[in-house]
Write a structure and sequence with these properties.
alpha+beta; 7 strands; binds zinc ion
Length: 224
């Protein structure tokens, strides 16, 4: 059997998918994971989970490599239906090398009520960059969804997709996973807090200080 290209990267993506499944952040074939591949000569290549394959049946060989125009490169399966969103994020954010999209429960509750999650716990600002905004509705798989997601994401690492779910974007697969898990946790905190007297936001000075930490760590400081 022929060896797979990008074996180490494929293993990272599969490990992420299994962890999402173990944690109950995805079910069936919902949600998807991708990463930017290191390619010599500047060509764009991305590794992404395929459309319509349940996670228990997915393995390294089933992942799809696409180019910057979303054309599959030597793959038999079709790339995830949300590939346009993943590519849109990569094109606008050179600091992002991994994207995780889920329909996790509490993030979806916030997305369905179209409620942005304000900065209510410190690690949100340090690791996500601030509030988690809600993108305007876009039909799944369309450029409208991709554009709305990219716009609402801004320079942060997570965004809610209205009436749909969430998306995390970070420099590595490991960090994108941590963000996806954090988004679910803070969404849960926020939704519960709102039902028991209302959430209070962090003080402004804390948000400002933590935001500087976020920008510095992300290499985004000069852009502000
Ligand atoms: Zn989705």
């Amino acid at each position: 059997m022929q060896a797979l290209t990008y074996q180490a990267e494929r293993e990272q993506v599969i490990e992420a998918v299994r962890e999402l499944d173990r944690r109950g952040l995805v079910s069936g074939s919902s949600g998807n994971v991708s990463m930017r591949l290191p390619v010599e000569g500047g060509a764009e290549r991305y590794l992404i989970t395929p459309a319509g394959v349940t996670y228990d049946k997915l393995n390294e060989a089933g992942l799809v490599i696409v180019d910057g125009e979303l054309e599959p490169v030597g793959a038999e399966l079709v790339p995830s239906t949300e590939s346009l969103l993943h590519l849109g994020i990569y094109h606008g954010r050179p600091d992002v090398n991994a994207v995780v999209h889920t329909h996790s429960l509490y993030a979806s509750v916030a997305a369905v009520t179209s409620t942005h999650v304000p900065p209510v716990v410190d690690e949100m600002v340090v690791y996500i960059g601030g509030a988690i905004e809600v993108a305007d509705y876009g039909f799944p798989g369309t450029p409208e969804l991709a554009n709305a997601g990219v716009e609402a994401l801004g320079d942060r690492r997570a965004v809610l997709l209205r009436n749909h779910g969430m998306c995390a974007a970070a420099p590595t697969v490991e960090e994108a996973m941590r963000v996806a898990i954090l988004v679910e946790r803070v969404s849960q905190i926020y939704v519960h807090a709102e039902t028991v007297g209302g959430a209070t936001e962090l003080p402004d000075y804390a948000i400002e200080t933590e935001r500087q930490v976020y920008l510095m760590r992300s290499g985004l400081l000069e852009s502000e």
